[in-house]
Design goal:
108 residues, alpha+beta, two-stranded parallel ribbon
């Protein structure tokens, strides 16, 4: 993970990586209370960063926002970028996103 973090954020300190502009997990969501939109968090069970999605969805709800977390068994990080013909999880996630958006904003 250190290799990937250094590639994504070269020459940054731990404090700099906690900037909400870099990691929304460190944002003060309570300051946005009453203004947080409904959020759908998707991740695969084989994603090395699964905890980020789980924690962020919980933090979203603790700040008063509506959050839905969907975990797709066996799917890796960024699985949603796979073609639906190649990944059943990607096809399922895209349908879940379509349904979520339709329910929240309509007509998607």
């Amino acid at each position: 993970m250190n290799h990937f973090r250094e590639a994504f954020l070269p020459n940054t300190t731990e404090a700099q990586r906690r900037d909400p502009a870099i990691s929304p997990f460190y944002a003060d969501l309570y300051a946005l209370r009453e203004r947080l939109p409904p959020a759908l968090f998707t991740c695969g069970s084989d994603d090395a960063l699964i905890e980020d999605s789980v924690f962020m969805s919980a933090k979203w709800m603790m700040a008063g926002g509506e959050a839905c977390l969907k975990v797709y068994p066996g799917a890796p990080h960024a699985f949603i970028l796979f073609e639906p013909e190649v990944s059943e999880a990607a096809a399922e996630a895209r349908e879940d996103i379509r349904e979520f958006l339709t329910a929240k904003v309509g007509g998607v």
